[in-house]
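Milestone 3.1: sequence recovery, worked example.
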């Protein structure tokens, strides 16, 4: 039977600085997964949207703020946000704690 899985070690995720693509090294075809780590007050502040693609953001540690369609969300570890296709979003780390989050991007009905 052919091997139906891939593995990849990304090491200590607390050492991630900025963006770290996870899906590409695993050769994923139908979704994306990116880890992001930002210092307090820094982050990704470029509003963007996708026509069809959905995004899920999960805050792993720290505190963060994320704006979706003009609404400011305050995030704590374990919080997850689904941004549906055409939703405009951006995120930024906030406060004294650095933030580490994972973003999962999929095409609807692709999984």
């Amino acid at each position: 039977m052919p091997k139906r899985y891939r593995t990849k070690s990304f090491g200590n995720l607390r050492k991630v600085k900025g963006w770290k693509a996870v899906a590409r090294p695993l050769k994923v075809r139908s979704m994306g997964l990116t880890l992001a780590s930002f210092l307090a007050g820094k982050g990704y502040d470029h509003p963007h949207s996708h026509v069809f693609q959905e995004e899920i953001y999960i805050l792993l540690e720290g505190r963060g703020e994320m704006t979706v369609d003009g609404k400011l969300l305050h995030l704590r570890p374990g919080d997850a946000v689904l941004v549906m296709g055409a939703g405009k979003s951006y995120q930024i780390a906030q406060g004294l704690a650095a933030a580490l989050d994972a973003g999962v991007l999929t095409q609807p009905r692709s999984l």
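Strands lie at 18-21, 31-38, 54-61, 64-68, 71-75, 80-83, 89-93, 99-106. Residues 29-106 form a domain with the Jelly Rolls fold (CATH 2.60.120.10).
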